[in-house]
Structure formats: structure tokens, C-alpha cells
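[Q] Does anyone have a clean C-alpha cell version of this?
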Amino acid sequence: MTSDDAPMRRDASDPYRRLLQQAHSQRRLLSVHWELTHRCNERCVHCYLDVLPAHHPPPDELTTAEALAVLDQLAALGVLYLSLSGGELLTRRDWRELTAAAHARRFVLRIFTNGLAITPAHAAHLATVQLYAVEISVYGADAATHDAVTQLPGSFARTRRAFGLLAAHGVRTVLKTPLMRSNIDQFDALRDLAADLGASFRYDLTLTPARSGSHAPLRHALHFADLVQHYRRTLDAAPPPAAPGCRLCNVGYNALAIAPNGDVYPCLELPIVVGNLRHTPLRTLWETAPLWETLGSLHRDRLPTCAACPLGTLCGRCHGAAHAETGDLFAPATTHCTRALALRQALIERKLIPPDALPLTVHLTALKARLDATCEMARC
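[A] Here you go.
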């Protein structure tokens, strides 16, 4: 979990840049993603959560008083970035109070929503709490595609309306899309839709298995051929090489996630519980939980398979994905190996790298053979 979309100037003399460097060197908690509820008013086919109906009685969620106390703890630790999500955040009756309290504590605040419940009054409130952005999930460039994913007729129209209401109050919006088999052909149309709605556009190529362990969401994931085609169309340069000993991500280093019941995770992709805020102060968990030491050792050079992989620059490895697949934080993640192979193929086809620049390891050769066989069976 990162704050890559936060404004960041590159000048090393910039005070903000120096703050970030200091936070990294001191292992200071900088960014928190908080799922305030697992209730939702949609039933998205790819969702990694086993969501509950919007009007379901709150199942062990932190109370308003408990949530306000957590905000105080975050502020005391010097947290800068705070993202609030669900489920659907707006199913909590106290969401206005919590967002106002977060604003009062001066976090760089984002909220994630599907936009269905946003009214003119809600948009006016969100303008008063000076959000960095409202990020709204859109799953297709038309109603048929989007509503098939949410399994809620009329959701596309209501979500589009939310963008207009927020724009009318000067609230910055982000249209974010997980690219799936059902919408990959609408990539350009989704980008155009974001522009038409006055929103930034962000997308993700990876779907996540359900927290319950079910792999059902992966039925909607892009095929290898889809990934290659996407990279062919969007690449303009080869990525720079990874530095030796790089961490690959900041899990356990400057960020964490909080579940609705107060459980603390290293990140959303790695839901290993390190403790619960109802029983242990956040500072104690951040400073003493044993898992952080393990996560601190996840440098690329210490990953048995990945350390020697020539495609390390391309894969965008996620330690959480590796753990979900194999139960091993140090193992390769097939999802990201597949992305790396697709990116390599597109780079070669676009003549952005020579064909022999990134030779395949035994692990990747075997995976590529399986992907090619699957593609042939599906007549990609």
C-alpha cells in the first residue's frame, strides 16, 4: 500500500521530500488504509470481501467512540495519509462524523466509495472536509458492463451522478477500474469517460482472491493474452532496473491497514492479524509486533527465486499475493510472474528491448509453457 498518487516533488531540497526520506529512514508510520465496514450496497462479482447487505446490523464494527479514539492514535503517531473505505463507507451512519474528525486531525484524507449513496448534501459535506480525493469504482464504460459486475441494475447511472455532484462542489475525484475480462476492451472508453467526468483515471491489472480463501474472483481476471495486448498498446519505454537490495514495496515499513473490527494488518493484500486495537494501543502494535521483523527482511536479494530473476524489474511483485498463493512470503507469486512475462513479450514485440535482453529462468520457462498451452486451448 503506497501513496504514489499523492503530490510529490522530486527536488531533494524540498521539505516534503525530506519528510518522506526521514519517515522511511526512521520506519515511521506514514500511511493507513482503514476498512470501516464490510457492509455494501453492491455485490461485485470480483470482490475479495465477503460483504454483508448495506442494512445488516453492524457485525463487530468499531463504534463511533472507538473509531474516534483510533483517529487520535493515528494522529499521535504522526500518520500523514489516511484512506477510508469499506465495503461501502457510506453505509456507516457515522461516516460524516468520522470524516469531519479526520479532517480536524489534518490527515491527507481520501475516501473510497461506489458513489451510489452520494446526494447533494453528502457532496457538500465532503467539500467541507477538504479531501485529497474521492475515489469511485467504475467497472465499465457503459451501464450494461458496469451493472453486470455490480449485480445492481441502475448502479452505473447513480455512480455517474456522484461524479457530477462532487464536481459541482469542487471535490477532486478519481475514477478507478480493475481491468477484467469483461471490460478490457473498454480501456480507452473508460479513460475517456474519466476525462468527461472531470476525474483522474487509475486502473489495476490484478484481481485478488477472496479473504475467505476462495479463488472465485480470479475467474474474472485478465488472461495472459489480454495482458500482452494491453501492454502492446500502452507501453512507450522499458522500466528502469531495480536497485540491488530494494524492498519492492513498503509493507510493514511505513504503512498498515485496519479492519472494521479493529484488527491491524500489514496491508490489505496481506491480512495477517498483528493485533487488535480494542485490546492493544496502535503504538504498541507498531513498535513491538513480531511480524514487522519478518517483513523487514523482504528485500529482493533475500527472496530465493526472485533474487536471481531477470524480470524483477517488470513484475511489480506483491508479497501478499505470494502469501495468498503459497503461504510463503518469500515465494514467487504466479500472478505477478505472469504480468512480468506479458510485459517482457510486449517489450520485445515493440522493439523496446532486444529479444535476448531478459532471459527466462527455469521457473519462468515452465510458467510460460503453461500459459502458452492455456492460450492455445482457448485459441487466444
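[Q] Thanks! Anything notable?
[A] The longest strand covers residues 108-113.
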